[in-house]
Please model this.
Amino acid sequence: MDDRSLRTSDFYFDLPQDLIAQDPLKDRSASRMLMVDIATGKRKHESFKNITDYLHKGDCLVLNNTKVLPARLLGIKEDTGAGVEILLLKKKEKDVWETLVKPGKKMRQGARLLFGDGSLRAEVLDILEGGNRLIRFQYEGIFEEILDALGEMPLPPYITHKLQDKNRYQTVYARYEGSAAAPTAGLHFTGDLLNEIENRGVKLAYVTLHVGLGTFRPVKAKHILDHHMHAEHYQISAEAAGLINETRQKGGRVICVGTTSCRTLESAADEQGRVRECSGDTEIFIYPGYRFKITDCLITNFHLPESTLVMLVSALAGRENVLNAYREAVEERYRFFSFGDVCFFTDDFTKGLG
Model:
């Protein structure tokens, strides 16, 4: 299909609301896994616990080690006592953040805010294009500790249940704070499972991409080429680049865990599919017609209809293959979105490690 003719509606599928997972499973690795052959669209139903059976010695799993900030703050306006909600989006400089605020219209420049028992205070410095606010925080002590005590996890809008354990919206390998949302494909891994994978000869390469709220924004443009992607910051270490390049050189597969890892590698790779130590911001938009430079396979959750993430997986495995897989997942009552089940887009259904 010519990318100029691609419409957002081409990536629609019908999803019953009751299939949207509201709570994480007690056991991270207990999710179901729908395997999809990238070339043929052939499908196979599995348990995620058995992912090791389909990884081969010499493969490399690429994981995003970003850490989600407890970025949702509930407070009051100092002058009126009216309730406010702040969502931290991006740190601009020391104690100054770009934020999303509610209620937005009443949050004027100069407004002063209080959180908790007043241990965290804030002032609106500026109103940015698009309505976000630039806010300076004031406090005594360590900001991260105060935020951990007062902040809530910024769960996606389709999750209405309260999260009982903050750590269930973090991967077990989360390391660098900066995300407004979790790289959810990684939520299925446990420390034991990662150790088992590594012990069987699969390399683990960690990259960082701080996930922005734009990942949840719907595509409003009628034609996908009219959609503007949000920017996200990424970083690849020399160690990770070395592991990935060595894998490709020796004929192993580069298997991205999550669309964020995939977008990081595809942003950083040269035309020969090699990466180097680097950092920067990416607005890469991957949709059918895109030629992948480095990603061989992808482990990812089930995504929203008409989202840029459905477009990305369609670029890898074909739009019809993806939509057919999603329809089957609906029929089989898989759990969808952040706390849902897994889709493994692969080139090999054979059990490699036994």
